[in-house]
TrEMBL record:
A cellular component annotation (GO) from this entry: membrane
Keywords on record: Lipoprotein, Membrane
InterPro entries linked: Atg8-like, Ubiquitin-like_domsf
Family in the record: Belongs to the ATG8 family.
Protein name: Uncharacterized protein
Organism whose genome encodes this protein: Stegodyphus mimosarum (African social velvet spider)
Major site of localization recorded for this protein: membrane
Subcellular location: Membrane
UniProt keyword Glycosyltransferase, yes or no: no
Amino acid sequence: MILHPDTSLFLLGKNGIFQSSLTMGELLDEERDEDGFLYLCYLAR
């Protein structure tokens, strides 16, 4: 996926939109599924 400079990227998990200040490690710790994987949806606007 190519994002232009004026495009925002949002990551969504089972509890909603994440804070943009979180690292991927923090997301993994908070949102990891029982099987150990991190399931995300994304939205570019």
